[in-house]
Amino acid sequence: PMAGADECRGLRFPIRRAEVARVVALALFVAVLWCNVYDRTSLANWSTPVVYSGDGWSTLAGIKAYRDGEVTPFVFQRVASLNAPFSANWNDYPSNEKLFPYCVGIVARVIGLIPAFNLAFLMASVLAAVAFYIVCRILRRQWMFAFMGAVMFGFSHYMSARLSVSHLGLDYYWHIPFCLLVTWWCLDSRDLPIGSSRWWAAAAVGAVTGLQAIYYAFLFWQFLGFALIAQALRRNRSKAMSVVSIAGISLAC
User: Fold this and answer.
1) Please, where are the H alpha helices in the chain?
2) Of 19, 71, 133, 188, whose Cβ has the fewest other Cβ atoms within 10 Å?
3) Is 15 left (phi over 0), alpha (psi -120 to 50) or beta?
């Protein structure tokens, strides 16, 4: 049965062994399915990139630069190994997606550039599925339907379309279910006190959203804007301030 509204408002999500086992099973299932879909079932295939064209080249170049330590996040980026005899200047356009390729570059130092590139795409599907499942269970949906929906969300047409052109940052839409959950909390008539457990969870979601693809951040901010209007119409000043604080944290990140 569908959960009542009161069951959707809190973070009362019991962590049981069976639930942990389901999450692990979901992650393994998605990983195995991904490897079969993209023919990454051997070490030889893992040594070739899933994308050879489009933005795949620039994505690989960025990961390589981070792997080799030629660039680091949040500083001016000049790559000495490119644009000989001078260094390549990568400061000509702003981007807030710098931590992500940096993390992939760190992994590439351990397992190699191409395997890290492929693993990043694999993890995009796994994280999307796991996040969808967790949010469904927080909303008290039945685990079987949550599991099925999670697999579909992790292998959406959007995911495969973005992978085909190597839009790695856009494939990491895993946080959108959490953004929708926070939007629900902010639209709710109940209070969301600053400093409460739910507020900290919402603030964490806002911070993560602010550090990833800007398209999803704009979407989240628009939803929070509607929530702010709703609280203003209710004349709920304290809830409105909570919404503003969450949006401010996300925007700052």
Assistant:
1) 17-37, 43-46, 56-67, 99-111, 113-138, 143-154, 157-164, 168-171, 176-187, 197-211, 214-234, 237-252
2) 19
3) beta
The reported pTM is 0.86
State pLDDT tens for residues 213-243: 899 999 999 999 999 999 999 999 999 999 9
- For residue 220 the two structure tokens come to 């989240």
Measure the CA–CA gap between 128 and 157, rounded to whole angstroms: 13
pLDDT digit string, tens, across residues 84-135: 788 888 888 777 778 888 899 999 999 999 999 999 999 999 999 999 999 9
**What are all long-range contacts of 1-6, with beta carbons under 8 Å and residues at least 24 apart?**
3/139, 3/140, 3/141
Are the C-beta atoms of 20 and 78 separated by less than 8 Å? no
- Joined together, the tokens standing for residue 207 give 């911070």
16-50 pLDDT per residue, tens: 888 999 999 999 999 999 999 999 999 999 999 88
| Alpha-carbon distance values, 165 to 51, 128, 129, 172 (Å) | 7, 19, 21, 14
Find the helix or strand (DSSP H, E) in which 89 lies.
Answer: strand 88-89
CA distance 231 to 247: 14
Amino acid identity, position 124: A
